[in-house]
Structure to design on (395 residues):
């Protein structure tokens, strides 16, 4: 789990003879072939397992990639430490708002930046919890207990609340994650979470969230209206073409970024590829003479799900999907590279947190139309933003 990889900028044929760390699984006959354009180093694949903590895995994976880019070496930062502090803070917000702020397993990229700035950070080995005997997160019991406790307070009818509730909740999480360490030893040196964070050299103020929606002015900041943005963090708003330019140029210039997106679409396939198929609704031919003779409900002999190509994404399409709840705040991942398929079409290379899942062992190839259509927001180093765009944002 500790070895990072840097894909070679050569043709990746995804066969049993490919030498990169990403290609442990044998290629299948129907698996697309990609040529790497640019692949920036990231740490190894992890598995969030039965927990809603993609935001923690992706944001810390992004920070680990930042440390690699900065020449700081390889780190395995603790998701448990981040989740512990985030859930306690979210519970506090839920109680203070009488439950109007939801209490759930989700979170945002900003939670990691907030933790880095206010609580520090620890390596994975510094957290020594039992996880109830599991080797991977399994929040089924933990969340049932913690949510029932928090919601009983936040939505209850009591007139006063004893402040001891926070200590009680912290014990629930300590029984699972372990008590967060006040001091620990890492590679022969003694640290507190704050001093360890300082030693990493990551400046929380270097990281900004970007998005692209028309219900707020471009080149301004606004709070994305999703429940898991419970800290009410702001994102800079860019026109879609500039939003895409930032992502493309960042990767080409050696940067990764945390990517929040809707992954519930059919185009986000189990085969490790995400696209926006340009399918059109066929006229219903049930009972028609055509259906009588062909036995199908096809149009012009072609099934709509087999239509090739992708939709051309516009700013209006993107906004409508968000307004209609078609684009939802589903999942956090990391974009780290660019590749092209055998037809020369470019895809972003994405690192997931579902373990070594799929034909690419935990990595995905996401088309640019999919990114343009289904991205909620990204967390990125502001130094990766092209200067002309950064100037418009006042950065």
């Amino acid at each position: 789990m500790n070895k990072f990889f840097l894909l070679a900028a050569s043709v990746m044929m995804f066969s049993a003879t490919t030498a990169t760390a990403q290609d442990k699984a044998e290629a299948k006959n129907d698996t697309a072939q990609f040529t790497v354009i640019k692949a920036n180093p990231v740490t190894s694949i992890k598995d969030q397992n039965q927990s809603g903590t993609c935001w923690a895995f992706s944001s810390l994976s992004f920070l680990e990639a930042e440390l690699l880019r900065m020449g700081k070496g390889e780190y395995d930062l603790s998701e448990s430490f981040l989740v512990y502090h985030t859930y306690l803070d979210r519970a506090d917000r839920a109680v203070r708002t009488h439950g109007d702020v939801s209490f759930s397993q989700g979170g945002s990229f900003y939670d990691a930046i907030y933790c880095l700035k206010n609580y520090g950070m620890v390596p994975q080995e510094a957290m020594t919890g039992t996880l109830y005997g599991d080797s991977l997160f399994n929040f089924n019991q933990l969340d049932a207990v913690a949510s029932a406790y928090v919601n009983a307070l936040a939505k209850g009818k009591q007139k006063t609340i004893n402040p001891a509730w926070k200590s009680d909740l912290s014990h629930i999480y300590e029984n699972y994650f372990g008590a967060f360490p006040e001091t620990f030893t890492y590679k022969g040196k003694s640290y507190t979470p704050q001093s360890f964070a300082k030693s990493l050299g990551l400046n929380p103020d270097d990281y900004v969230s970007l998005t692209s929606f028309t219900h707020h002015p471009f080149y301004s900041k606004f709070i994305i209206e999703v429940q898991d943005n419970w800290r009410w963090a702001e994102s800079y708003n860019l026109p879609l073409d500039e939003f895409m330019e930032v992502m493309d140029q960042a990767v080409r210039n050696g940067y990764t970024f945390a990517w929040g997106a809707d992954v519930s679409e059919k185009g986000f396939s189990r085969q490790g590829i995400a696209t926006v198929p340009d399918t059109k609704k066929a006229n219903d031919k049930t009972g028609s003479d055509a259906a009588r003779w062909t036995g199908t409900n096809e149009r012009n002999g072609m099934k709509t799900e087999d239509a090739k190509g992708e939709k051309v994404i516009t700013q209006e399409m993107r906004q409508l999907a968000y307004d209609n709840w078609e684009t939802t705040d589903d999942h956090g991942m990391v974009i780290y590279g660019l590749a092209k398929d055998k037809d020369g079409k470019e895809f972003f290379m994405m690192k997931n947190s579902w373990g070594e899942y799929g034909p690419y062992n935990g990595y995905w190839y996401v088309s640019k139309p999919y990114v343009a259509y289904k991205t909620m927001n990204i967390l990125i180093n502001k130094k990766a933003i092209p200067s002309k765009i950064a100037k418009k944002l006042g950065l």
